[in-house]
Amino acid sequence: MIKSVKRLGAAVLSAVMMLTAVATPLASAAAEGTFPESVTGETENNNVVTATADDSGLVYGDNGTLTKAEWLHDLVTVFDMKVEEGDPPDNYFTDVAYDSEYYDDIMLATEFGVVNVEAGGELGPDDTVDREYASVTLNFCLGFQLDDDTYTFSESSDEAYADELTAFQVALNRNWFALSGGAFLPSKAITSAEAKAMLSDAQQVLADAQIDDTKEGTFEFADYVIDFTPYQVVEFDEDNTVTIYAPDKKLAVGDTFVVYDQELPFCIHCNGY
To answer: What is the pLDDT of residues 206-224, one digit of tens each?
Structure first.
């Protein structure tokens, strides 16, 4: 049995051995810049959700820059992040007031894993959004992966950015930003125009991923994706666990695999065990 806990959860392989893998849902299992497989699902079960119909309600900041609170509001809007009515997320931060303008959006983004700050820490809601923050958070929502570890910016050898390299390269490949003298410039504030272009690109990616249920669809996955198509999905339960009977399959940390639920593919990345 392979059990995946939370699509941000874990995968357990049972037959000869048991393996528990922490998994993150991916919007794309192919190379960065492509979106061959469609991913849908209820928002509480998957951090990759449907796009809004247009950009109504999006904000791009004042005087050419925008704050973290504004940016998180935009991500929540574009990716339609929601929780069940009457079940608001908790306040994780010491510097976000309950009556602040984007309080609900900040907590929703945190609930969906977009914000990587320890509970009880400071978010800095009024801080200016820089290239690092924008590229990491947006690519978390989109889930683009790279086919290889080829990076085209000078900071790629800086250990301080080891966990952000993929997001930086995705940002360059998607033309969200341009290099300056070969440098990505992670701490450079993004402009309102750049924010608008990034969010428009995200909306287009999500729109392209929508399924026409009147037509037969086919799916293609990158070579590194482990396909569980032949195997029976036992269940997707309410706590986001998927159970598959696959006694001859093994998973390792870092694997990306795809399972199907109601004929729709879900790509899952194993982060640990």
So the answer is: 988 876 666 666 777 778 8
